[in-house]
Amino acid sequence: MSRTLRVGVIGGGIGGAALAGALAQQGIEVRLFERASAFGEVGAGIQMTPNAVKVLRALGLGDALADVAFLPQAIVGRDWETARESFRTPLAGVCEELYGAPFFHVHRADLHHILTTIVPSDAARLSTTCVDVRQEDDKAVAVFEDGSEFEADLIVGADGVRSVVRAKLFGQEAPRFTGNMCFRAVVPFDAMPAFVSPDSSFWLGPHAHVVTYYVRRGKAVNIVAVAETENWVEESWHAKSSREELLATFEGWHPNLQRLFERADSVFKWGLFDRDPMTEWSRGNITLLGDACHPMLPFLSQGAAMAIEDGYVLAKSLGAHGNDIASALRDYQAERLPRTRRVQLESRARGKTYHLPSAFAQRKRDLIYKFKSYLNPQASGIQANWVYAYSATDFAPRALAAA
Ligand SMILES: Cc1cc2nc3c(=O)[nH]c(=O)nc-3n(C[C@H](O)[C@H](O)[C@H](O)COP(=O)(O)OP(=O)(O)OC[C@H]3O[C@@H](n4cnc5c(N)ncnc54)[C@H](O)[C@@H]3O)c2cc1C
Predict the structure, then answer these.
(1) Residue 237 C-alpha to ligand 1 middle, in angstroms?
(2) CATH superfamily of 6-174+275-402
(3) Which segments of the protein form a coiled coil according to its record (predicted)?
(4) What percentage of the chain carries pLDDT values higher than 70?
């Protein structure tokens, strides 16, 4: 007779919280270990694309998300200097029909809070840093900084791009600095200003691009301003920059952006790192999820979405396979690895298209956008319709599929 599984999740970010909530909904015992002293997320926005929203709805979080989110009209490509539109991909009123869920913009802290509402209240251990993991017979053990240990049927490393669990399983290897850094800021507004359109705006310029969008039901604008650099940038959500540095880096860009940047009181900077796709994620009773196994450039806005999808699929696979951890991990990886690999590689490729240096190359790219938009606006611009069409909620573990 199968007994209740016990799963330990290392890392309580967006991926770890989504997994813990999904496991609890499968009736699986879960413990979540987070090194920070409090749950929370940085002050930044995040695009929750239809593929992620489908999962959040399946977890029962659809209404809570819609309550705090902003519904953008379109994804719009704009020239960095003139604001001339190069593509327009309609979203509001279209995504539900095309992909089965809307496209939302949300504040990361709001999203994380929503996810923690489905994590059992006694499941989380804060201020707990994992330093090692090991296989022991048919169990996995996580070891923490204070010397304490936790034994479970499965340990999942959801501990981000510098994952300790990944290093212990597959060896230490530094993530790759991609030659891009980004500035991030959230600018509050009492009312939506006329100089920020209600879209996800992609301002494309030479060696750089800027994405702006509303969060918090239009009460704030999120800025992600990416610039190529040879200088190493500290990788932290908390590396301080300044309004002056942001304005200086994007000098000469469109006046609407300058007006927005001038209102940014608190600016952070962040080096962008990724890794090559892996060929496997698991060893014995230990596996990985989210940025720990597939960190990616944010150019398709998919890192958190992929982590949420992973969490849902892994929980469903474990729920279906009972005590057969090996089969559960086999189905999890078979479902998730090819998809995340493609998203990782295409995210990298987008950086090159967004940052074309010469006016001639930009013109040529924009003409291609125009032509593709004419055929199908969903398949132009950032070209992510194939990402949004996927439904993790359709995942059928083999045990169920065969039944
Ligand atoms: C500029 C930018 C914009 C982005 N925009 C989007 C977007 O619009 N849409 C989208 O879907 N994604 C976006 N992303 C990607 C997204 O932020 C990440 O992919 C996502 O946060 C990954 O979630 P995660 O849970 O795997 O890892 P993380 O969010 O890194 O969480 C890891 C957690 O593990 C904890 N931890 C680490 N080590 C340990 C340890 N040893 N012991 C215990 N706990 C530990 C950390 O404190 C953290 O809480 C963006 C990323 C960037 C940089």
Answers:
(1) 10
(2) FAD/NAD(P)-binding domain (3.50.50.60)
(3) none
(4) 96
Q: Is the pLDDT of residue 343 over 60?
A: yes
Atom of ligand 1 nearest to the CA of 41: 49
Nearest CA to ligand 1 atom 41: 130
pLDDT attached to residue 174: 84
Burial (CB count <10 Å: 0-12, 13-18, 19+), residue 186: buried
Based on its alpha-carbon atoms, the radius of gyration of the chain, rounded to whole angstroms, reads 21
Residue 66 token pair: 């819609």
What are the pLDDT digits (tens) for 243-266?
Answer: 999 999 999 999 999 999 999 999
Q: Which long-range contacts (CB under 8 A, 24 or more apart) does 316-322 make?
A: 316/22, 316/26, 316/395, 316/397, 317/395, 317/397, 318/5, 318/7, 318/23, 318/26, 318/28, 318/154, 319/26, 319/27, 319/28, 320/397, 320/399, 320/400, 321/397, 321/399, 322/2, 322/5
Query: What percentage of the chain has pLDDT greater than the value 90?
Result: 86
* Residue 158 alpha carbon to ligand 1 centre in Å: 9
For 191, the 3-state DSSP assignment is coil
Indicate if the pLDDT at residue 1 is higher than 50. no
Q: Where are the domains of the chain?
A: 6-174+275-402
Nearest CA to ligand 1 atom 35: 11
Atom number, ligand 1, closest to the C-alpha of residue 14? 25
Residue given tokens 């540095």 in the structure block: 245
Residues acting as catalytic residues:
213
Can you spell out the DSSP letters for 298-359?
A: GGGS-HHHHHHHHHHHHHHHHHHHTT-HHHHHHHHHHHHHHHHHHHHHHHHHHHHHHT--SH
At 84-98, the pLDDT tens digits run: 999 999 999 999 999
Q: Which two tokens stand for residue 127?
A: 């201020």
Kindly list the protein residues whose Cβ atom lies closer than 6 A to any atom of ligand 1.
10-16, 33-36, 46-47, 129-130, 158-160, 164, 182, 184, 224, 270, 290-292, 298, 301-305, 307
Q: Return the number of other C-beta atoms located less than 10 Å from residue 195's C-beta.
A: 13
Instruction: Please write the tens of the pLDDT for every residue from 13-35.
Output: 999 999 999 999 999 999 999 99
Confidence band (pLDDT; 50, 70, 90) for 58?
Answer: very high
Rounded Cα distance between 310 and 12, Å, is: 14
pTM of the predicted protein model: 0.95
